[in-house]
Amino acid sequence: MEEERNHTSVAMFVLLGLTDELKLQLFLFPVLLGIYLVTLIWNLGLIILIRMDSHLHTPMYLFLSFLSSIDICYATSISPRMLSDFFREEKVISLVACATQYFVMAWMGLSECCILAAMAIDRYVAIGSPLQYSSIMTPGLCQKMGVGALGCGFIGSLVHTVPSFSLYFCGPNVIQHFFCDAPQILSLSCSSTFSSQMFMFTVAVLVVFGSLLVVLLSYGLIVASILKSSSVKGSAKAFNTCASHLVAVTLFYGTALPVYMQPSSHHSKKQDKVLSVFYVVVIPMLNPLIYSLRNTEIRKALKRVMKRRTHSPP
C-alpha cells in the first residue's frame, strides 16, 4: 500500500489560467502587463517620495509606505507567473512552487488586512485625540505596528499553508484557476481536509475578520467624534482624511470576501476568476492612485522633490 501510495502521489499541478480563448488572451496580456508595470511604478514611486520628503515622515505615510511594499509583493506573487502562462500550452507548476506562490500571496493578503486596520486606528487617534496624536502615534510605535502586521500575516499564512500543502494528492491535478489557491488545492486532496479547513477558518476569523472588526470599530468611534464636533468645516475635513482609506478597505474586502465566503454552488469559477483579478492584480495598482490623486500633501511633496532635483548642482 505504501509503495502504491508513493507511486500515485501527485507532485505537479496544471493551472487552467484565466481563459483558453486566443482572442481574449491577446487582449488580456497587454492590459494585465500594463497594470502590473503601473503597480510597480506607482508603488515604488510613492515609497521613494515618502522617504525623500521629510514632510511625509508622519504615521499615515509610514503606513502607506508599508501598504505599497505589501502591494508590490502581493502583485508580484501572482502577475509574472500569470503573464508567462499566456505563452504556455501546458501551465504546469510543481507542488513546491504552488505552495510558495500561495504562501507569499496569503502572507501579503493577511498583512494588508492588518495594515488597513492599523491605518484605521491612526485615523481615529488623529480625529478623536488630535492634541495627543503626536505623543500617542510615535514613530517607534508605528514601526512596531507595521512590522507586527507583516509578522501576523507571516504566521497566519504559515499556519494554514503548511497543513494544506502537506495533504496527500493522488489526482486529478487540474487547478481551475490562474494561481494556486488553497480552496482549489483542498478540493484535489485524496485525504481528509478537515484539519486544514479548521486552520484556514481560525486564521480567517482571527486575522481577516479581526482586522475588519478593528476597522469598523475605529470608524464607529470616528463618526461619534465627528458628531460631537460643532464645526461643519472640521467635520468635512475629518471625513476627507478618511475617504481614501475607506475606498481602499471597501475595494479590498468587497472583492476578496465574496470569493471565499460564498459556497461554491452560489457562484461560478469564471466569477471567482474575475473577482480574483480585481483583488490580487487591480487593487495593488489602485491603492497608490487612491491615496495620491486627491492628496494635496503628496502633490506638494512631489513638487518639492522635483524642484530640488531641478535646482541641484550637476
From TrEMBL:
Its main location: membrane. The keyword Lipoprotein does not apply. Residues 42-291 form the G-protein coupled receptors family 1 profile domain. GO terms for molecular function: G protein-coupled receptor activity; olfactory receptor activity. GO terms for cellular component: plasma membrane. SUPFAM superfamilies: Family A G protein-coupled receptor-like. Keywords: Cell membrane, G-protein coupled receptor, Membrane, Olfaction, Receptor, Sensory transduction, Transducer, Transmembrane, Transmembrane helix. The chain crosses the membrane at residues 26-49, 61-82, 102-126, 147-169, 198-227, 239-261, 273-293. It is a multi-pass membrane protein. PROSITE patterns: G_PROTEIN_RECEP_F1_1, G_PROTEIN_RECEP_F1_2. The keyword Lipid metabolism does not apply. InterPro entries: GPCR_Rhodpsn, GPCR_Rhodpsn_7TM, Olfact_rcpt. It is found in: Cell membrane; Membrane. It comes from the Eukaryota. Belongs to the G-protein coupled receptor 1 family. Putative odorant or sperm cell receptor. PANTHER family: OLFACTORY RECEPTOR (PTHR48018). This is Olfactory receptor. It comes from Erinaceus europaeus.
